[in-house]
Input
Amino acid sequence: MMAGRPEDSVIDVYQRHGSAWAKRRADHLVEGTWLDRFCELLPAAASVLDIGCGSGLPIARELVRRGFDVTGVDGASTMLALFGRNLPGTPAHLADMRELALGRRFAGLLAWDSFFHLSPADQRPMFRRFQAHAAAGAALMFTSGPSEGSAIGELAGDRLYHGSLGPDDYRALLDASGFEVVDHVVEDPTCGSRTVWLARQRR
Output
């Protein structure tokens, strides 16, 4: 087990156990219904930023299959190596999402099963980063916890941190960053009990 604060070791856990995560995640698109809804908000061949893209399976691969122009971002080079093998030719950047600054805007922003690894304190300023990378009318979809707090999961024997704000905080942060909530479901039973937010940047 790793010492120190678990919220500070998330990237290192994925760096060392990326292959184990990819095997556990597999390529079953349990989030297919939500991905459909996200894609319905995008124009054809739109640019999509996958923040915390992991191995690219199954989500980025599905977006590419649907004809979208995907760019990946991940903080662990182990995950980007898997992404490159799974999606050769699809651009991906090594970056901590808390320091995201690509200097361009996208029609879609996705932070699925990644944003919730940040502490509540680190999540708050992320909404300005989302805004800085969002084109007019851009879709934003991310997963969170059901309520404010933290939880510790496990990956290959190491602690894996998850954090969340409360729903009122998320709504306020989205609004202040120019996003309106399209839908929000707490612990969706059709999606592995994930809590999902789908929003859209105001034009």
In short: The radius of gyration is 16 Å.
